[in-house]
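One record is given unchanged without comment:
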Amino acid sequence: MLHLGSIRGTSIDVDFTFFVLIGFFVLSNYSVEPTPAHALLWIPILFLSVLIHELAHAAAIGLFGYGESQIVLGGMGGVTMNARRAESWHDMIISGVGPLSSYAIYWVALLVYNRYDVHDPMLAALLPRLSWANLLWAKFNILPIPPLDGGSVLRNFLNLFLKDKTSFVITTWVGMLTAAGLILYFLLQRNFFLAMMIAWFLISNWQKWEYFREHGYPGD
């Protein structure tokens, strides 16, 4: 684990798997980009996109008074950890600001690219890629599949009206069914990378469901 530092008490660390993710994107774009330098643009794109997304979560956590967090950038993107017992509507907002920050990056990068005459060739190449990547990252994260932000928003929304146990069951099954449909879609599109990522979420949710069936829900 590489420690990068901290911002207002929130620590930022990079797991080795994040470098694997970056390497995958650089190599997969190496043959389709105009030059090797353009493929290397995916390093700052991934780093900034994931970091700002997680910092948005950490900022919301801090604004609600839950203290400092730990951000870890890893192979599945990033995670913001904080030992809190938050109200459901707080957690809805905390989860939702991540995708909103990605949409904000998409909009700002696109605005700068379209409105201003960018003379630097690499910056002109970076901005549309940064915009496109964050649009996809935002859409991906709002999928109702735990542990993605969309899954967390769905569960905490249901918690406003239902018991947490019921919300867990509904969210887990919505997540598994959504994941199964997306895996089939991506396989048909021959997008094996996204199919594998979604399969990991499907397996994770199935394991949680099996644990629930065998051990029950905490507090039962």
